[in-house]
# Entry
Amino acid sequence: ISDIMLDVRSGRVAYAVLSEGGFLGMGSNLHAIPWSALTLDTDEKVFRVDITAQRIKDDPGFDKDHWPSMADETWGTQMHKYYNRDPYWTTTSVDPVAERDRGL
# Structure
């Protein structure tokens, strides 16, 4: 994971940005991966992606100088569809801080 993209309106993590290829940051291809595709392996202290490496490589991705507009709902919908995920803005999430403050 080279970056994490936040949805500033909701405060949710939207995407992880994975880097593949290249050398010393030059010529690498970046891929926005839906956050819902990652799980934290606490034993190994790593994130795991339940998407095949080939599927990620087949995604055209983007380069460090030409990021997609993360606020573009059309782009986001297409990216989620490519990775067979529901767009994060269509799902509900639990806010543990809000629940704690309400005594839940």
Q: What stands out?
A: Residues 3-101 form a domain with the SH3 type barrels. fold (CATH 2.30.30). The first strand starts at residue 3 and ends at 7.
